[in-house]
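Re: weekly structure request thread

Next one in the queue (191 aa):
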Amino acid sequence: MSIAQLYHEFARSVVCPHWSTAILDFFQRRGSKVALVLFSLFGTGSLLAGDAFLDAPATGRFILSPPSGKELLRQCSRPTPRDVAGFWRPSSHDVDELETSLSAYLEVRRKGNQAIPPSGQAYHRQYIGLTINSEQFIYGNFYPASAVSDFWKDKQAKLALVVCDGGPAFWGIVFRVSTKSFEEIRFNGLG
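Done, posted below.
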């Protein structure tokens, strides 16, 4: 079996709410060191993808520092959180929790005929922690990997990406850390 086939089988086997069991089961069935390497390289994207609804490559995940917070919330064609008292840097663990819950949240929205981001494209993500009324949240800024120009490739880890218009492939979401739940999802306009 080729590496691409192994990865495809692995990605299909992962179901977000039970990802650790699915991963262990996959490795035991395959007994493959290649599978372990693939999980190490692509695990985060596969977990977020779950049923391949949302492709989020591990190389497209950026946790921004607090000074970038104000700029990240200055999205010009979608609402962002208000009354922010301060910014903080989320841990990788915090962002892992957000990303492993996201596919299930989007699936519930899809089944409820609520707006969801377009599927079938890889998304890069920028995250910043924010405090509102003494409670911690994480804001995620999602954008198509294909929209990253050569100019932005080296900057997206440090600078907030702000796109005016662009449609629903550019979106933001708020995650409440204490309850591990999503507060709001907002999409860019079409302009």
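The longest strand covers residues 123-132. The chain has a mean pLDDT of 79.
Next request, please.
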